[in-house]
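Deliverable D5.2: sample structural annotation.
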Amino acid sequence: MKYLFFAIFFPFFMNCQKIQDKQMNIELKNELAQIDKDDQIYRELMLPETSPERRKEIIKEKNLSQEDATVGLGKIMNQQDAENLAKIEKIIAQYGYPGKSLVGEPENKTAWLIIQHSPKINQYMPLIKKAAEEKELPYRLYAMMLDRQLVQEEKEQIYGTQARSFKTIKDGKTEIVWIIWPIKDFKNVNALREEVGFGQTLEDYAQGLLGKDFVFKNYTLEEALQLQNKIKSK
């Protein structure tokens, strides 16, 4: 009986697997992979830890002048972001969110990444939330986008994923001060982070994001807004 069950079940399983494979949109998967690369390459050039050899590769690949690779980089990156967003919006209009069942991993994260770097988070937040709830996208990515939305609205974030920098004057010198934006439930933030799939505590995440020498301080929203308003008023 056991062998009879296997003989019946195995062809059924293989047929289901073939159907699932057919549903994977390889052309779209490849398009998203290229969009992801286009999104990251200029940001890689901006990172201080990018090696000189890799910088030369990027400059050659993208045919950048010295000016493009330095003072003009922000403008070029903004142009690329706008192009990427237009492509993603066209894909979403045709397919809905391009999630794991349609394009596999890691390309299921690409649309999220482009929206995260765009001014349209509010517009697409319901779509991102639905994709996360349906496991088409890691839930922690929805959590990161939610944090960014809250910070943009000058509200307390939930998971502590967003940092802000401010210029301050100390001893007559201008300094850049980085903070983790205020957190709504600081006491339980690490439990909340674990619940949605973050593999690090807030403190470890902050040092990974802002450097090992970063000293975490739990700012209140009032303190953070005071820092921010000082900058706006200058």
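Annotation notes: Residues 183 and 190 are 11 Å apart (CA to CA). The longest strand covers residues 163-170.
The annotation will be released with the project's public dataset once the embargo ends.
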